[in-house]
Amino acid sequence: MKNMTEKEKMKKIREVLENNKALGHAITLLHWDLETEAPKDAVERISKTLGYLTGENYSMIINDEFKNLVYSVNSEELDEVDKKIIKELKKEYFEKLEKIPKEDYMKYSELKVVSTKKWEEAKNKDDFNIFKPYLSEVIEYNKKFIKYRGYEGNPYDTLLDDYEPEITVKELDEFFNNIKNELSPFIKKIVEKKKSDKEIEDKKKLSEMTFDITKQKEMSLYALNLIKFDFNKGILKESEHPFTTNVNNKDVRITTHYYEHDLLSSVYSTVHEGGHALYEQHIDDKITDTILGTGVSMGIHESQSRIYENMFGRNKEFLKFIFPKIDEMFGLSKQGIDFESFYKLTNEVQTSFIRTDADELTYPIHILIRYELEKDIFSNLDEKTDVDKLAEKWADKYEEYLGIRPESCKEGILQDVHWSDGLFGYFPSYALGSAYAAQIYDAINQKINIDKELEKGDFSKINEILKEGIHKYGKMKTPKELIKNITGTSFDSKHYINYLKEKFSKIYDIK
Amino acid sequence: MKNMTEKEKMKKIREVLENNKALGHAITLLHWDLETEAPKDAVERISKTLGYLTGENYSMIINDEFKNLVYSVNSEELDEVDKKIIKELKKEYFEKLEKIPKEDYMKYSELKVVSTKKWEEAKNKDDFNIFKPYLSEVIEYNKKFIKYRGYEGNPYDTLLDDYEPEITVKELDEFFNNIKNELSPFIKKIVEKKKSDKEIEDKKKLSEMTFDITKQKEMSLYALNLIKFDFNKGILKESEHPFTTNVNNKDVRITTHYYEHDLLSSVYSTVHEGGHALYEQHIDDKITDTILGTGVSMGIHESQSRIYENMFGRNKEFLKFIFPKIDEMFGLSKQGIDFESFYKLTNEVQTSFIRTDADELTYPIHILIRYELEKDIFSNLDEKTDVDKLAEKWADKYEEYLGIRPESCKEGILQDVHWSDGLFGYFPSYALGSAYAAQIYDAINQKINIDKELEKGDFSKINEILKEGIHKYGKMKTPKELIKNITGTSFDSKHYINYLKEKFSKIYDIK
C-alpha cells in the first residue's frame, strides 16, 4: 500500500466497490422478487440467500485491509467524485458502523426481526402489550448506539442524521412549531365547516363506483408516460404496498396497488413512486454505478415523490388537463361527478387516525406527533423510556392537534412498522420532504409558469429544472446544498405553510 | 484437514456448497429477470453483475483447497446422499472442467459470446458466410476439449455425456436408425395422403380466429391447475421464448408466450414447461438445496415436459375432457370447429423446416438430422471439419428424410442457436426424451388406465407414479437407473415407434 499512488489506491477501492455493487444489485433484485412475485413457499430460501449475500456485502467493506486502504488515500490528490466517494465511505461505513461493537450489532439485527414480527402480531390483535417489551428493547439499543456514536447538541440529532444528513433538533423544532401553530388551527377551521349536500353526495357516488383494474393499469401507465418516466430504464409492477427500488439510473422499478373501488389510490401511488423514480433515473451516468449514485436523503427523495404526487398531481390546472381522459375511461360525469367535484374530492381534507391515509394538509400533523414523541424518547439517554405511557401520549397529541382521539392502539401507536424495525429519526423526513417540495415549487415558478405547463400536461421543462437542480447530483451534494442550489436560499418552512394555506383556503373558501 | 473426521469434512463441504447455492440462486434470478421483465437499458448492468457472480461461484468450488478437501473424503464412511454429492462434485467440477486449461476455457467462453452474436446476425441476414468462421472455431475447440477430457469408444460420447450421462453413439445409432427406417417412410405416407375439404377448411378457420390474451392466460392457469402445478411453489409469467427455471423445489418458474391468432401455441407451451416444473417441484426435500436437487439430465427432463405436452396433453380422452371448457371460452364450435376437428388440428402432421414448429411425429426426424451431422463432425478429431459443406449436407438430409429441401440457411442450418453456443451433443436428448416418455407412458399404463384418468382430467395418480418413479430422486439416480426404476427394463425405442405409429395411423386412417 505504501508504494501505491493515489490513483492505484482509488483503482483498487473502485474494484471492491464494483463487486459490492454487483452483490447489492442481487440483493435489491431478491427483495424486489420477494415483494412482487416470488411464490409463497420460496420465502425461506430467499431469506437464506439474502442472509449470505448481505453478510458478504458487509464483510467486503468492513475489514481492516479495506479500511486501511481507504484511510491511506490522500483526498487532496483526487478529483471531485473520488474525493466524495472516500468521504462517503468513511462516513457511512467506518464512522457509523464501526463504532458499534459487532456483538451489539448482531444482537440488534436479530432483535429487529423478532420485534417486527411481534409488532405485526400486536397490530393484528390490537394489543400493545405484546409489542411493548420489544419496543422498549429497540429503543434502549438505539440509545446505546447514540452513545457509541457520540453526539453534539441533542442526542436525537445522531439518529436524524441517518435519514436527513445535517438536520438537527434545533431546526426541526422551529419547523414543527410552525406546523403546530399555523396548521393545526387552520385544519380545525376546515374540518368544522359544514359540508354541502352535493359534497356529501359526490363522495358517496365515487366510493360506490367500480373501476376496472385493467383500465386502472392503463391509467397508471398513462400518468407515468405523462411525467416522462422512462420505460427503457424502469418498470411498473404491483405489490401489496407501493414502493420504489433502484439498481442504477437505468434500472428503476416502482409498484402500485389497485383497488376496485378506489381509483385515486392506485393513480396517486403510481405518481408518488414515479416521482421517486424520476429522481433515480435522472442521476448522472458518471456516478450512477458508484456509492454516490442514488438519492442523497429520505427528505430530498420524499420531496420529489410529493412534488409530483401533490403539487403537480393534485394541481387544479393539471387536473383540468387530465380530467377528460379519466372521465372518458371511467365515466365520472355520467355519474354526476363533474370537474369541480372531482377536484374537490382529490383534495379532500379530513382528520383521520392513519398516517398513510392522510390528505396533503393533515399529513404533517401525523409527523409532528411522531417527531415530538421521538424527540422526547431520545433527548435523555440515561433514563429508561416508559413505553407504557407512550400509547397514551400518542392519543393525547392526536386529540390536541387534530381533535380526534384513537380508541385502539391499531389506530394509534401500532399503526406504523417503523419503530419495530428501529427506524427512529425517519419520520421527520416525510414532513420535511413536503416542505422542501413547496420551496422547490416556488423556485421553479420563478423560472417558468408551472400552471401553464401543467394545463398542457407538459412536464419537460419541470423535469429539466429538477434534473439539473437536484436529481443529477445523487449524493454529490448534501440536502442543504441541493436546496440552496435549486432555490438560491436556505430551507424555510414558510413556503410550505403558505402553499397549504393558500391552496386549501381557496378550495374550502376560508378567509 | 488431516485431523478432520469425514463428518467434519462433509460439514465444511456442505457449507461451501450452501454459499454456492446462494450465489446460484441470485444468478438464476438475474437471468429470470433479464428474460421476463428487466428494462431494456438495464442489460449492461445485469451482465456485469452476472459476470461477477458467476466468477465467484466458479472460484468458490474450483480451487485447490476445496478440491483437496473433496478428494480427501473417504466416501465409504458417508451416507448415500453425501456419497453422491462427492461423486457429483468430482465428475461435474473437477474431472470435467479441470482438465481444460484455464486459458482455453476463457478464450472459448469469449468466443461463444461473439459466435452467438454472429449467428444472430447471419440468421437475420440469411447469410451462412457470416457465421461460418465462428462455427468452425467453436467446433475445433470442442474437438480439442474432447482430447483434453479423453474418451473411450467414439469421441462424440464425451459430449453426449454432458447432456445425457452414460448415453453412447452405439446406443443412439440404434435408436436413430429405428427412427429413420420406421418413421421416415411412415411420415411420407401421411403427408402424401390428400386432405379432405373439411380438414382444409377447419385449419383455415382456426388460423383466422382471434383469441383474447386475457382468456388465454386464464386457460394456461386452468391447465396448470389441472396438472397440479403447485402455485405456492412456482409462478407462470411471459417471455419471448417459453422456458423453465428453478431455484429449488419450492421456487420453480415457467413462462409461456401468447399469440393472438394461435391458441394452441400458448397452451401447449404452458403444459410443456409445466411438465418440466412438476419434475422440479417433486424433488425430495432432503436433497432440494444440494447439488443433487435438480433434474438429472436433459433427456429425462424432456421426457417429463413431453409426456405432459404430447402424451397427456394431446391425448384424445384428455381433449374430450377439456374441449367443452375451451369451447366455452373461445367459441370454437360456433365457428364450426367441433371436437373431432379440434382433435385432428391438435395433432396435425406436416413436414416443415423449422424444428421448433414441428409436430409430435416429424419432430424426431429434425433431431435425427442434427445427430447425424454432429456425429460426423466429432467422430474424427484430427481432421478439420469442412463447415462449407455442412449447410449442403443439412439440406440433403431434409430432402432424404422429409422430402423437403430448405431453400435458405435461415430455414436450414442457421435456425438453431445451439451450435453457436457450443452446445454439441445436446440435440439427441430432445428425441431421447420423447422416446423415454413413450416407454414411461406404457409403464404407467401397466399400473393404471391412463385414458380413464385423463377422461376425468385427473392427474393425481399419474403425478404420484411419476413423482415416486422419477421426480423425487433428482440426481440421486442416473437416467438409466431411473428408466429401469419406473419401467422395470432398460431403454427400448420400440415403445416410442409403436406409440407414434399407433396414434397417427388412427388419426390419419393409415393401414
UniProtKB/TrEMBL annotation, chains A, B:
GO molecular function list: metal ion binding; metallocarboxypeptidase activity
Cofactor note: Binds 1 zinc ion per subunit.
Cofactor(s) the record lists: Zn(2+)
Catalyzed chemical reaction(s): Release of a C-terminal amino acid with broad specificity, except for -Pro
The EC number(s) this enzyme carries: 3.4.17.19
Active site: E273 (proton donor/acceptor)
The keyword Protease appears for this protein: yes
GO biological process: proteolysis
The keyword Nucleus belongs to this UniProt entry's keyword annotation: no
Binding site for Zn(2+): H272, H276, E302
Role description: Broad specificity carboxypetidase that releases amino acids sequentially from the C-terminus, including neutral, aromatic, polar and basic residues.
Family: Belongs to the peptidase M32 family.
Protein name stated in the entry: Metal-dependent carboxypeptidase
Annotated source species: Pseudoleptotrichia goodfellowii F0264
